[in-house]
Amino acid sequence: MLRACALTYSTKSDECLPLAEFAYNNSYQKSLEMAPFEALYGRRCRTPLNWSEPGESVTFGLDLVTQAEEQVKFIHENLKRAQSRQKSYSDRRRRPLVFEEGNHLYLRVSPMKGVHQFGVKGKLAPRYVGPFKIIERCGPVAYRLELPAHLAAVHDVFYVSQLKKCLRVPEEAVDTSQIQIEPDLTYEKKPVKILDQKQRSTRRRTINFYKVQWCNHSEEEATWEQEEYLKTKYPDFDTKPFDKVVELEE
């Protein structure tokens, strides 16, 4: 509805928000089987659009209260039916989560006030921590995890909805407290050592490439970088050549 207003009225779309709100509150809702205004106040909204219609004047009193109570019951029944219908749609795509002992799982955590993770706190903090190893299955929907020492005060049995399977257990442990996080949630990578060297010959010059291992990264995550880039970005880094140089084809 808001998108239609923005596309139709362009720069004047903000002036149409009250009209959009009016249209929404007085439109029939399938889940309520009435308009939201009627569900909230127990009567239909009388506006200049229907005040000119002929009819008898109505005095509001006990009849209005009785009618509102009946409508509330009616709305509750409609909401239950709508909830049951939506649940049936969700159950069609839902599958049970089953894990085995020895698997590793990520644990979902809620943002805690005042707690910093990776240098940030609140909604920007990571949603999952771990991975942790399953040491016992406590029923069909609960698992006991092997938690580290700093989480000893946390109960080690968790419901299956709080868990996510870890497809690959990282072999290298990185101490995140030693990483300096920038305000934009990035950190500066620094080269540690050179693993290999290659050359690419062109018509005018020969370009040296180095396979660089970065800090907080394994050798499998090393990348090929040009010598010129390394000398410009990291002038203090020593790029010693290897005894064996492989020449790349142009």
From TrEMBL:
InterPro entries according to UniProt: Chromo-like_dom_sf (IPR016197), Chromo_domain (IPR023780), RNaseH_sf (IPR036397), SH3_Tf2-1 (IPR056924)
GO molecular-function terms, A-Z: nucleic acid binding
Superkingdom: Eukaryota
Transmembrane segments: none
Residues annotated as domain Chromo: 192-235
Location of the Tf2-1-like SH3-like domain: 102-166
Pfam entry (one): Chromo
Database matches in SUPFAM superfamilies: Chromo domain-like
Designated name of the protein: Chromo domain-containing protein
Species in which this protein is naturally found: Paspalum notatum var. saurae
